[in-house]
Amino acid sequence: MRYKNVLLDLDNTLYDTRQTEKRAMSAFLEHYAPSDDAARLYTVYKQINLQFWQKLETGEVEIGEINQERFRRFFTQENISADPQKAGEYYLNLLCQFRIFYPQAEEIYEYLTKKYQVALITNGLKAAQERRIRNTFLNEEISALYIGEVIGYHKPAPEVIDHIMTKENWADKKQVIIIGDSLSSDIQCAQNAGISSIWCNFTGEEPGRYKPEFTVTELLEIKKIL
């Protein structure tokens, strides 16, 4: 068996983050900006949010800035009078309330944890990620959770992989593979660190310059690889 160690991303890999965010923002907008313009407002927020997470990957912003500053910019742009810090906290509570997993997530998680040493990995906010896995099939005693905000490094920095390998006593990068949906985060991290990758391409995206070793279009296809 070539691989022994699996790094498993959370958002848009196990979590259906797109649907979770859609439900959370629907409730958020009903509270902060009730109108018939919710679809446009959600599109505006998504663009702002994406920009902040892209800047995190390139080191242009700190993780602690994102939750408040994305709403500060959103409120300023849309002329909404509200406290961005309180709004950020309100939104995180909604995210945890509306958490949605992909239908195959539990099955593939159980399959992987029975065959491999697994660690969960995320760039997401600590305040949300720790709460979202509580009372779910994800078990930190079986698969430790590594959050960029806690360890001090964020994908695609190769230090993320080095840190986890040290903590988990994984010795050989040739035996490590990361599973994730993001080309610029998960797959680029694998390339930067010199490990293998499985790209979860659930949206029909083109890989462009990125070179994952494997690509799947649904989670259970991973069984054919590992």
Give your account of this protein's structure.
The chain is an alpha/beta fold. The chain folds into two domains: 5-16 and 101-224, HAD superfamily/HAD-like (Rossmann fold, 3-Layer(aba) Sandwich), CATH 3.40.50.1000; 17-97, Orthogonal Bundle (DNA polymerase, domain 1). The protein has helices at 17-32, 38-57, 63-78, 84-97, 105-115, 126-132, 148-151, 159-168, 183-193; strands at residues 5-9, 117-122, 145-147, 176-180, 196-200, 214-216. Strands 3-2-1-4-5-6 form a six-stranded parallel sheet, with helices on both faces. Strand 4, helix 9 and strand 5 form a beta-alpha-beta unit. The radius of gyration is 18 Å and the shape is globular. The N and C termini lie close together (9 Å).
What is the fold's blueprint, element by element?
Blueprint: E1 5-9, H1 17-32, H2 38-57, H3 63-78, H4 84-97, H5 105-115, E2 117-122, H6 126-132, E3 145-147, H7 148-151, H8 159-168, E4 176-180, H9 183-193, E5 196-200, E6 214-216
Parallel strand pairs: 1-2, 1-4, 2-3, 4-5, 5-6
The assembly state of the depicted protein chains is single chain
CATH superfamily of the largest domain: HAD superfamily/HAD-like
Label the overall shape.
globular
Summarize the biggest pleated sheet.
6 strands, parallel
| Order of strands, widest sheet | 3-2-1-4-5-6
The number of helical runs is 9
Radius of gyration: 18 Å
Instruction: From the 3D structure, determine the CATH topology of the largest domain.
Output: Rossmann fold
Count of structural domains: 2
Jot down its keywords.
6 strands, alpha/beta, 226 residues, Rossmann fold, DNA polymerase, domain 1, six-stranded parallel β-sheet, 2 domains
